[in-house]
Amino acid sequence: MVDRTRDPLTFLTGQGAMRRRMLRDLDAMSRRGLLRLGAGAAAAGVLSRAGAGRAGAQGTPSAAAMPEFDEIPEALMGSGEVRMAGWGGAMQEAQRIAYIEPFQELTGITVVVADQQPDTSKVLAMVDTGNIEYDVGQFDRSSVILLEGQGDYWEPVDYSIFDTDNIDEGRRYTYSVDMLPYAWIIAYRTDEFPEGPQSQADFFDVAAFPGPRSTTAGAAGLDPFLEAALLADGVALGELYPLDIERAFAKMSEIRSEVAQFWTTGAQPAQMLSDNEAVLVHAWNGRVAAIQEAGAPAAITWNEGMLATDVWAVTKGSPNVENAQKFMAFTTLPVAQARLSMQIPYGFVNNASAELIPAEILAELPTSPEYAEQMFVRDISWWVENTEAVLNRWNEWLLE
User: Fold this and answer.
1) pLDDT for the residue 277
2) Is the pLDDT of residue 42 over 60?
3) Does any domain span residue 5?
4) Are residues 33 and 171 in the same domain?
5) Is 21 helix (H, G, I), strand (E, B) or coil?
6) Does 351 share its domain with 383?
7) How many CB atoms lie within 10 A of CB 102?
8) What is the mean pLDDT of the chain?
9) Residue 3 domain-assigned (yes or no)
10) Within 10 A of 34 (CB to CB), how many other CB atoms are there?
11) How many structural domains is the chain composed of?
12) Least confident of 69-73, 251-255, 381-385
């Protein structure tokens, strides 16, 4: 079992200041109000390529110009609560507006957002002790698969209440379901680098691009961005996997002294960039979009970024398992997914969502052909097989 709790991360992090009736219902909904954009679509048509309208002046997502729910399948109605663990920050605020609040209003089920991030080591502990603190969480799929191998820690997904006509089979698994395509990208301060880095080699070039950096840690449910290090060391985009672990860590050592902090939450790199605590960061694209909307002098380099997808998964023995299933089904409906992409520039897993999103916003999502062709797709199979080795090496590397 991978032990994510024993790394000495504190040594460095202090440095640097988740049938038929429903399908009939969905078909009726698509003909009635579920696809209704109304005045919001017209307003959305004026959004700029910079993403105006996705977030407010302070980086808080706005509810403007989004498709609305008229009604939902009866199978999703209920009572009581569901406890959700997410990644906080701009992402969680976007989720609140896009589908948490509508879910509560339309289903009668209350969503309690956990005060902790989703972590499979925590899920293991919760199930083993019987102390279930949250029902459903947003996880990296490789982490879910790894825990599957340790025992019975997840509830199977009940696809009888999902919009499976519009969610590809390849996005549906026994114990999880895709819910969020996103990209790991390079972001930088434009006041420091007007031209900006164009590759991972630039990110690692401390002479041409001097200043403090931030990249992901091998802790808190995250993995170190080894792919970036290998690209910087000359590995071709299509030849990354299998990853050469030792080569990657050797390259990471070249910038170790320039890393102000190895981040463990999605909000950290964007905040560091906004606060000028780092001039270059590896980050999730939507987090950077939020600080751009708030006025931070930040830009994104999509080239040599990594495409990945988060999943929903339900903790085994959850006291609110039925509500958790309903929550997952609701959040992957066409309108819910479209609303999220219009709040924060992440992709969608329901194919019908594309009809609801203005072209200007579709063009700015990480799944846009313009960007996707510059990036590579994270190899989940490799990470499932090698996460333990990578994290063990990470712990050793921190102490070298």
Assistant:
1) 98
2) no
3) no
4) yes
5) helix
6) no
7) 22
8) 86
9) no
10) 23
11) 2
12) 69-73
Given a cut of 70, whether residue 337 has pLDDT beyond it is: yes
Residue 44 has pLDDT above 60, yes or no: no
With a cut of 60, say whether residue 365 has pLDDT above it.
Answer: yes
One domain for residues 77 and 138: yes
CATH number for the domain including 214? 3.40.190.10
Amino acid identity of residue 11, one-letter, is F
Hey, what are 146's tokens? 């790894």
Helices (runs of H) and strands (runs of E) counted in the chain: 17, 10
pLDDT band at 266 (very low <50, low <70, confident <90, very high): confident
Amino acid at 45: G
What's the CA angle centered on 62, arms 117 and 76, to 5 degrees? 60
Of residues 396, 385, 327, the one with CA closest to residue 102:
327
Kindly give, in sequence order, each residue whose CB lies less than 8 Å from that of residue 297, ignoring residues fewer than 6 positions away. Answer: 189, 190, 191
Going by C-alpha positions, the residue among 232, 272, 354, 334 that lies closest to residue 27 is: 334
Same domain, 188 and 293: yes
Q: Is the pLDDT of residue 368 over 60?
A: yes
Half-sphere exposure at residue 324, Cβ-oriented, CA atoms within 13 angstroms = 27
Dihedrals phi, psi of 100, to nearest 5 degrees: -70, -50
Residue 285 tokens read as 């694209």
201 and 84 part of one domain: no
Say whether both 176 and 285 belong to one domain: no
Phi/psi-derived region of residue 279, left when phi > 0, alpha when psi is between -120 and 50, beta in every other case: alpha
Tell me the per-residue pLDDT of 13-39, one tens digit each, with 9 for 90 and over.
333 333 333 333 333 333 233 333 322
* Long-range pairs of 160-163 with CB within 8 A, sequence gap ≥ 24: 160/19, 160/22, 160/75, 161/19, 161/22, 161/73, 161/75, 161/76, 161/325, 161/326, 161/329, 162/22, 162/328, 162/329, 162/332, 163/22, 163/23, 163/26, 163/329, 163/332, 163/333, 163/334, 163/350, 163/352
Where is 245: in which H helix or E strand? helix 245-253
Instruction: For residues 73 and 143, state if they share a domain.
Output: yes
Q: Which domain holds residue 271?
A: 182-309+374-399
DSSP for residue 99:
I
67 and 85 together in one domain: yes
